[in-house]
């Protein structure tokens, strides 16, 4: 059974892998990143326990796959109703595999502990994790984006924590993580009024990093940012995201994390490569190191200097 065949609620797209002759042997993505698609379009990608478990399970596989240096989490492109990242919990689904009774309070507390376990694992994924939101990101779907590092949204996206309208609280880490992202007052507004907010508002509040028109521009932006992560210094990114997301909760501990992290990073290939590449010069590819073009005019690419600073070639965790 292949890795993809283990999943029913998600689909995975992998980076291209080539053989020694340059022939593609597997994968479809031009970049060192993978995509996890939540694939329940008929329910607007509503989340069950199985759905969230499959997302965290897919990330566990990618954590140990050195060809994957970043991940995009998004709703399926095969839209059957409306575009959606996820509208949140599937309220018709059984809880705890049918072993928990919703009428018993402690059973519901256990149900949330089980869901937190998955969300926490998603949040602690060591590589960059992008939430690409096109459409609805509501309730548990919105909370799922909070477990990611970067949120990129299309201009038709809507975010919200509407649970209060059903007499429920957003307990998948929503109110706690939301407060750390956009501040207490705005988190109180989102949690207590259950409103939907557009992508531009969420960008203004610091929740969404980039907004693009739905369609080709959105897809191009997601690919651009994911590919950048896939070519960047993975160890440095891992240490940066943990220092910010977890070290900032306790500043003194965060400062110690920075010190230890700097030492860890210094022993890896990527930091050495970055410093060496900064001082390394290569011939300008436009003028072939001549400083001038064939018509005798100065090369604008290198400004007539003949050489350019080299681009670092990072290896990631490998």
Write the layout of secondary structure elements.
Elements: E1 10-13, E2 17-18, E3 24-26, E4 34-38, H1 49-63, E5 71-75, E6 84-86, H2 105-123, E7 129-133, E8 136-138, H3 140-146, E9 150-154, E10 158-160, H4 174-182, H5 184-193, E11 196-198, H6 199-204, E12 210-212, H7 216-231, H8 234-245, H9 251-266, H10 269-279, E13 281-283, E14 307-309
Parallel strand pairs: 4-5, 5-7, 6-8, 7-9, 8-10, 9-12
Antiparallel strand pairs: 1-4, 2-3, 10-11, 13-14
Helix pairs in contact: 1-2, 3-4, 4-5, 8-9
Give the class from helix and strand content and strand pairing. Answer: alpha/beta
By DSSP (H or I, 4+ residues per run), the number of helices equals 10
Write down the Rg. 22 Å
CATH architecture of the largest domain: Alpha-Beta Complex
- What's the order of the H and E elements? EEEEHEEHEEHEEHHEHEHHHHEE
- Poorly predicted regions are none
Strand arrangement across the biggest beta sheet: 1-4-5-7-9-12
The counted number of beta strands is 14
Question: Fraction of residues in helices?
Answer: 25-40%
Binned strand content: 15-25%
Mean pLDDT score, rounded?
A: 91
User: What summary fits the major beta sheet?
Assistant: 6 strands, mixed
- The CATH topology assignment of the largest domain is 2-enoyl-CoA Hydratase, Chain A, domain 1
End-to-end C-alpha gap: 26 Å
């Amino acid at each position: 059974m292949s890795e993809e065949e283990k999943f029913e609620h998600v689909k995975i797209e992998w980076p291209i892998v080539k053989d020694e002759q340059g022939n593609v042997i597997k994968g479809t993505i031009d970049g060192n990143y993978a995509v996890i698609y939540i694939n329940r379009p008929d329910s607007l990608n509503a989340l069950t326990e199985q759905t969230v478990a499959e997302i965290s399970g897919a990330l566990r596989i990618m954590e140990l796959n050195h060809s994957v240096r970043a991940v995009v989490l998004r709703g399926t492109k095969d839209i059957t109703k409306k575009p959606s990242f996820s509208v949140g919990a599937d309220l018709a689904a059984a809880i705890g595999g049918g072993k928990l009774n919703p009428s018993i309070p402690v059973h519901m507390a256990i149900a949330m502990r089980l869901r937190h376990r998955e969300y926490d694992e998603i949040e602690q994924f060591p590589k960059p994790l992008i939430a690409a939101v096109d459409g609805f990101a509501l309730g548990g779907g919105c909370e799922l984006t909070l477990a990611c590092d970067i949120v990129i949204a299309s201009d038709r996206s809507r975010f919200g924590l509407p649970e209060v309208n059903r007499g429920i609280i957003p307990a998948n880490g929503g109110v706690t993580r939301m407060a750390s992202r956009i501040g207490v007052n705005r988190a109180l507004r989102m949690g207590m009024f259950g409103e939907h907010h557009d992508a531009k508002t969420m960008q203004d509040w610091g929740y969404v990093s980039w907004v693009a028109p739905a369609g080709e521009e959105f897809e191009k932006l997601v690919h651009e940012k994911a590919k950048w992560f896939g070519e960047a210094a993975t160890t440095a990114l891992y240490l940066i995201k943990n220092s910010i997301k977890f070290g900032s909760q306790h500043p003194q501990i965060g400062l110690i994390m920075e010190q230890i992290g700097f030492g860890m990073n210094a022993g890896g290939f990527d930091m050495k490569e970055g410093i060496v590449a900064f001082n390394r010069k290569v011939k300008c590819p436009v003028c072939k190191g001549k400083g001038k073009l064939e018509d005798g005019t100065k090369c604008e690419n290198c400004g007539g200097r003949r050489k350019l600073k080299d681009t670092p070639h990072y290896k990631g965790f490998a």
